[in-house]
């Protein structure tokens, strides 16, 4: 968990730090506060730390400049220098560097002990992490155990998430990771969290394997669309290398008690995307057409039974005979019964398509020229897409 540097300092007015340079970097994320006197130990920094130093190990202006450059290179969030003891002035070269590189530089007044700065800042970071973990766990419980309201309503109410508000789930999936998947999911989760904090008043974000789950409170479908598109733009800017992002947005619920439905819808959208049934990088449940009706079937056994009844014989025939009648028939239906277009798409002769469609009709016991039968089969294929 991290906070923007500005947000962290605004929440700790007793932590006396005077900003000298690098104000454009106050949006940097901060994960912790460290005291670091020597750059020899900078290899132990993980990035995004606010560094405090007395300057006791610095021999002069050149050392100070080298120290600041090293912290910047190690992706520190900023640096605070104790003035009046070992550092009696800060060279213009240092402030200029910090301004040019948006690297926040602070002065610690002479009479202020480090403990009075580090303690409240670290406590705020811990409190924020604890709060986010509790909210995330509560929403996980709301999604996994909707009937056990005691597992999520008290915690969410404590943090002012109203039970009867409308919520939606947004699931973001990353593919082709440019780095360690855990690190990339963590970094992207923070990027999404930062955006949502600015965009909506109440939200929660947590990472899962290859995915990020966000729960947002919106008052209308139009607002949800704006938020969803903002998430897409934000994540696309943060992609690295050959990474790609896919986003599914569930329907707005009527209360927090049915957030699991929105989550299930968002998951189904990602499944359809992965199978090439949806082309856009972000898809909203309200735009799914006939898939909306199928996803609204509460009992999955009904969908599975229909799918097996309609397409089961053809799937079994393909399995036993090593044929592809199921795929050919799907292409035929997708091309509105055009043998020519189906043949062109599959790179085969039209006679081959005619033979296989006739064989599929025989196996299924259906007249494939009838609209009623074609509709039943398309419904079966759409259910197969969702499984």
Automatic annotation (TrEMBL):
Residues in CdaR GGDEF-like domain copies: 156-271
Domain Purine catabolism PurC-like, chain residue ranges per copy: 17-124
Organism of derivation: Bifidobacterium merycicum
Signal peptide positions (record): none
Family membership noted in the UniProt record: Belongs to the CdaR family.
Pfam family of the protein (one): HTH_30
Domain PucR C-terminal helix-turn-helix residue range list: 325-380
Top-level taxon of origin: Bacteria
Official protein name in the record: PucR family transcriptional regulator
